[in-house]
Amino acid sequence: MIPIIDSKRQYATIKDKAESAVLEVMRSGKYILSENNKKFEEEISKYLNVSHAVCLNSGTDALHLALRALNIGKGDEVITVAFTFVATTESIEIVGATPVFVDIDEKTFNMDVNKIEEKITPKTKAILPVHLYGQPCDMDKIMQIAKKHNLYVIEDCCQAIGAEYKGQKVGTFGDIGCYSFYPTKNLGTMGDGGLAITNNEELKNRIIALRNHGGAIRYHHDEIGVNSRLDEIQAAILRVKLPYIDEWNKQRRAHAALYNELFKDCDLVETPTELDDTYCVYHQYTIKVQNRDEVHKLLQEKGIGAMIYYPIPLHLQKVHAHLGLKEGYLPVTEKNTKLVLSLPMFAEITEEEQKTVAKTVIECVKQTMALGV
Ligand SMILES: *Cc1c(COP(=O)(O)O)cnc(C)c1O
């Protein structure tokens, strides 16, 4: 069995440090918004080269509090993609705004920047690009459109910590960058966690207030907020892991290069494209194959933990049915939803395992062809 990700293997590499960091928190008696939160915010700001970072309880909260901080709500439209995890658009609906979907680019799976402007209306307040699978969006173009039309930009970096566009970390281009530390993300904690980053002090203060019941001063509440604090144990674990993120991302890139090599002579497998001027961190290594569902099933039978991210595009999900969008609305998104297959990818995967994965994928693709399914 080769899993899509093996969190236990990573744990083994940081075990002693993580366990003593957690013990220290437990013994300190300080469990909420204390030293580890403060230090982690400082350390990750430095890593991302941004002025402010605010620890939160999840990536979903980072997104929805970012929208709140920018006063986006009822009657407003936010331009985003349907080829992403539901949290992206759920956040838009949570604040009462309407997601407006742009199709994706065939090669990068990211927002097709040439189709953004046609979706802008007088109600549009923001663009919310998603750096999917760890691949940076075309931020020059997105920022240029945002400036021209006076729109905010919120970056969903939940799959892309450490990814760079023209040498600059994603999340630092727009007004607010949002990160998730869900255990399977490139930088994952051992529970839930999230982060919002910004270079704007006012926005930082607003998010700090929103995460703790809408008030900067304890028991003084200026607006309706939420409880989205990151607990000290999670912050302590993240502080142990942060120093490794560059090395882990480097290993993922090396694994992606090896997969590319292993599939080089097989026309039946389309490997991911990495654009010039970007540093992709391969949260997923996602191929495209015909007969995807059959290939997926065969791989599972053979113990290869391939996964489909994501099987149903968001504009066709029940949760967004009220938008009245039908099949055919986003042709590239819909087509790719039927082709994508993400393969086992994590820093600790071995060359032997990758060879087994690639060999089995090629076998399974050929088998489905022969069956004529
Ligand atoms: C994981 C993820 C989120 C949500 O993060 P959580 O921490 O699970 O709330 C949002 N957007 C994308 C693209 C994600 O992959």
Structure summarized in a few sentences:
The chain is of the alpha/beta class and 373 residues long. Strand 6 and strand 7 form a beta hairpin.
Structure characterization notes:
This protein has eleven helices and twelve strands. The longest helix is centred in the first third of the chain and has 22 residues, at 7-28. The protein is of the alpha/beta class and 373 residues long. Pyridoxal-5'-phosphate binds next to α3 and α4. Pyridoxal-5'-phosphate (PLP) binds next to α3 and α4.
Q: Which keywords apply here?
A:
single chain; 373 residues; 11 helices; 3-stranded antiparallel β-sheet; 13% strand; 7-stranded mixed β-sheet; 12 strands; alpha/beta; binds pyridoxal-5'-phosphate
Query: How much strand?
Result: 5-15%
Series of H and E elements: HHEHEHEEHEEEEEHHHEEHHEH
Stretches where pLDDT falls below 50 for ≥5 residues?
none
Q: What's the count of strands?
A: 12
Give the names of the bound compounds.
pyridoxal-5'-phosphate
Overall structural class, as computed from helix and strand content, comes to: alpha/beta
Q: What is the helix tally?
A: 11
* Mean model confidence by pLDDT: 97
Strand order of the largest sheet: 1-9-8-5-4-2-3
Distance between termini?
Answer: 26 Å
Overall shape: it is: globular
Major pleated sheet? 7 strands, mixed
